[in-house]
Write a structure and sequence with these properties.
4 strands, four-stranded antiparallel sheet, alpha+beta, Nuclear Transport Factor 2, Chain: A, single chain
Length: 170
């Protein structure tokens, strides 16, 4: 009976919002693998070039110190999801989530585990997504909602999804 109730709920869910959330989950799984392998290029196809470059900078800094990151997402709670269409027809999404992570920076020669205690952190993030020409979603930008700095210009994805987040339609 519970399965039937879940199936009925899924039927009312917007398929684009579901796809956007799924893209964020795929991005986070791939990000863990990219950090573990010290290969930002693994994010190609799930993230924008800018996000791949951001991860590459983090990986490069760790490699410079002879380290890599081992990370694990311990919780992922979606607060809201919005999808909005720009005037030119482009589709953008935003997923706001609170998530917790465990991570450690391990020496490169300690791939099997360093035994060091893992650090824990919690983030309140806004994932901004773009629908690709091929029809899939990619993470265009990740914003820390608690520590966001005023940035100009604000990304197009942010501008387009703001109205949908405020409930002003799609």
């Amino acid at each position: 009976m519970a399965f039937l109730a879940l199936a009925c709920q899924r039927g009312r869910e917007d398929p684009e919002e579901f796809a956007a959330r799924t893209a964020v989950t795929r991005y986070n799984r791939t990000l863990v693998e990219a950090y573990r392998a010290s290969r930002a290029d693994l994010l190609t196809g799930v993230a924008s070039d800018a996000e791949v470059s951001r991860a590459a900078a983090i990986i490069s800094g760790l490699l410079k110190d002879g380290r890599y990151m081992e990370a694990r997402q311990t919780s992922f709670d979606v607060e809201r999801t919005a999808v909005a269409r720009a005037d030119d027809g482009a589709l953008f999404g935003r997923v706001d989530a609170t998530e917790a992570w465990e991570y450690e920076h391990r020496p490169l020669d300690a791939r099997a585990g360093s035994g060091a205690p893992r650090k824990q952190t919690t983030y309140k993030l806004a994932y901004l997504l773009e629908k690709t020409k091929a029809g899939g979603w990619i993470v265009a930008e990740v914003i820390d909602r608690e520590h966001a700095q005023t940035r100009l210009p604000v990304s197009r994805a942010w501008q387009v999804t703001q109205g949908a987040i405020r409930g002003e339609g799609r």
